[in-house]
Amino acid sequence: MKPNHFPEGPSTPTAGDILQLLIRTTHRLHTQFEEHLAALGIPAYLTGPRVRVLIAIEEEGSIRMSDLASKLGIKARTVTQFVDALEQEALLVRTTDPDDRRATFLQLTEAAPPLIAKARAAMSQASDEVLQSLSTEGRSQLQSLLLRL
Which residues of 27-57 are buried (b: 16+ CB within 10 A; e: fewer)? Predict the structure, then answer.
């Protein structure tokens, strides 16, 4: 059996084979995507997931950290890690909720919107480059299969 390939012949891949291929492919696509972003001038600290955080905050204007975790479907601890990194880069600030001192709101700084716009354009271009080997029909089929999972 060749690495990254299924055995030759009529055998049907097992569920484990498919899942392992999906995991390897996802990792490879993520790496290619990040490389394309870097080539398009997006700073290394601004990864795809961190851009998602910034976009979510931009859409809300101001959002509690707990609501951001829910919106993105990630753990509060993960949000804290993203926020720490983005705050260090001066792209967002934390403010205390005047009604609940235990809650923290997030807001973008003035430096964030232009970088978000640049990142969105680069992400679109990088996505096209990473998926260029798939036809329009192939992309639709892949989307359908992934949604079924």
Answer: eeeeeebbebbeeeebeeebbeebbbbbbbb
> What is residue 1's predicted lDDT score, i.e. its pLDDT?
41
| 3 has a pLDDT exceeding 60 | no
Residue whose entry in the numeric block shows the structure tokens 């569920």: 15
What number of residues does the chain have? 149
Q: What is the pTM of this model?
A: 0.75
> Please, what is the Cα angle at 122 between 120 and 125, to 5 degrees?
110
Domains of the chain: 44-124 (1.10.10.10)
Beta strands 100-108 and 63-64: pairing type? Answer: antiparallel
| Strand partners of residue 97 | 100
Count of Cβ atoms closer than 10 Å to residue 11 Cβ: 9
Residue 55: which of 118, 97, 103, 104 has the closest Cα? 118
